[in-house]
Description:
Helix content: over 70%
Mean pLDDT: 80
Number of helices: 15
Largest sheet: none
Amino acid sequence: MTIKNTGNHSALNLISLIAVVFILYVLKPFIVPLLFAVILSVMVFPLQSFLENKWRFNRLFATITSVITLLVLTALVFFLISVQFANFMGNSADYSQKLSELFHASVNSLEDTLHIRNNQLFSQKEFQMENIIKDNLDKIVMVLSESTSFLSNLILVPICLFFFLYYRKFFRTFIYKLYKTKSKSFLNAILKKIYLVQQNYLVGLLIVIVIVGFLNSIGLLVLGIGNPFFFGFLAALLLLIPYIGIAIGSLLPALIALATKDSPWYAVGVIGVFAFIQFLEGNFITPKITGSKVSVNAFVVIISLILFSMLWGIAGMILALPITATLKIIFDNTPGYEAYGFLIGEPVDKHFQTRARLRLKKWKNIRNAK
Length: 370
């Protein structure tokens, strides 16, 4: 009977999980801006609190001021990016021609080295390398434009952001009523942990973006790549996508290096500089700044990136880490789900030690106790 009940319970959990994933996928146009509004409300709440407590603004005026401030700053960033992209697109024809010449020269050199001849591949009118490269550059710019401007097209974000800030006590009371069996102090502690994790992540991410942006820009400036600060900070902004963002951001300046420099080693230098900065960011900068409050292990981060990107695309990759960190807190404080919270968290030193080393450490502890 116990085995049967356990099987029924597992089947019910699986069906529930499938239903939740289906709902999240179908309601993506509504849920994604809602989640972004939640994260942005955490980001802007310190300003809201300052206006209410220090300057004695009433809540409505403080909320409107906070939302407008965030929108103005966001619009300014997108405007600067759009201007730089417009300048880049103005030179895309020259870049395409130079990349085409480099491609043909490389192919001819390869043919001479390997004694391979192909008289038809590049003589056909329908296969012109100039058009292919130009089309691909346009697509790269289009993808990057969409990935950096989709937030501005979400009408629900500022609306939800306003109500999350203005109705925050109302929503907190709703949580109290929803979980009547839990004490208010327990629920407040959970909400505070979630808020601190999100705030730590956002503030740390902004600081890391600034630091990495300057490092990228200095590296590009030393190599003599055009618009170094634009490409440097654009790649830093792509840190919103953990692990692979800065790698994607290095491709565009590498192509520019190929198109504008005499040697392809400049492009290799760009990739090398960005790879070194990513190493510094992942191993020293981010751990030092964000600390241990966002304690999610790398394996779970990669899995969550894949799953959320399959679910919501680029937006899912940006939201993956904040959602995963929140789930860890919920699992850690929900009876029966502690194991999932443990799985999401960072392993400690003892998880990397062999049994022999553990026995030796235990024996030393016993001997020291004596």
